[in-house]
Amino acid sequence: MKQLSSQISSWRNYLQRLMLSVVLILATTVLVADPAFATSVYEMPSLTADSSTWVVDKGEVVSRVTEGKISSLLENLAKQTGNEVRIVTIRHLDYDETIQSFTNQLFEKWFPTPEAQANQTLLAIDTVTNSTAIRTGEKVKSIMPDEIAQSVASETVQVPLRQGDKYNQAFEDAGDRLVAVLSGQPDPGPPQVAAENARVEGTFKTAAETDRGSSTVWVVGLLIAATVIPMATYFWYQSMSS
């Protein structure tokens, strides 16, 4: 009887250690895996003085057709006006970064001097949260005030995204508006959204909120399993031995 009791105790301890190890591994995966996919400024490609790179799609959300269309549009803008626009998508930010801080760092990496920055515009989006940011040079501000630039990032890009993650439309609309303003044409303004649609869209969770909720459910479920399974095994052995 003592031998059986010892075996049961040994099995129970083994199962507890096993389940605890599984929970710790999965919890670590949930908490640590995301940063592994984060995009750092240092991972972004460098730009040369005569670079013809206009779209950097690290988030892989823009079709080749749309990328080609936007690149052609922005290249013509640069040739005709000297004003250059870059559009960047990233898959995920580091936890200590915001999309604005990332955009500022990338802007200064690509254009390290005030002279290099003067005619530049950089629009960026984090495709996990769909958060956007924009940074412009001093000469650009005289043509496109900060109010319009921020409207491009927060309205022109965001409206198609709220309608179902329509990234291609979002960037085509942003490209059209930026080219119009930076060419000296009247600002066409942001897309018009019905108040009813705006209220409905506001009820949906963001991608980040959804991811956090799913992760929490998995971790809690595994913690419960780590407690219940060893107990159930123990009582099963007890019933077998009686």
Share of β-strand residues? 5-15%
Distance between the termini: 10 Å
Mean pLDDT: 78
Query: Which structural class is indicated by helix and strand composition?
Result: alpha/beta
Describe the protein in words.
The protein is α/β, with parallel strands linked by helices and 242 residues long. The protein folds into two domains: 68 residues; 159 residues, Diaminopimelate Epimerase, Chain A, domain 1. It is built from ten helices and four strands, in the order H-E-H-E-H-H-E-E-H-H-H-H-H-H. About 14% of the residues have low confidence.
Identify the notable features of this structure and list them briefly.
Diaminopimelate Epimerase, Chain A, domain 1, 2 domains, 242 residues, 4-stranded mixed sheet, alpha/beta, 4 strands
Question: How do the helices and strands line up, and which of them pair or pack?
Answer:
Layout: H1 2-36, E1 55-57, H2 64-81, E2 84-90, H3 99-110, H4 114-117, E3 120-126, E4 131-136, H5 138-143, H6 146-156, H7 158-162, H8 167-182, H9 195-201, H10 207-241
Parallel strand pairs: 1-2, 2-3
Antiparallel strand pairs: 3-4
Helix pairs in contact: 1-10, 2-8, 6-8
Short description:
With 242 residues, this protein is of the alpha/beta class.
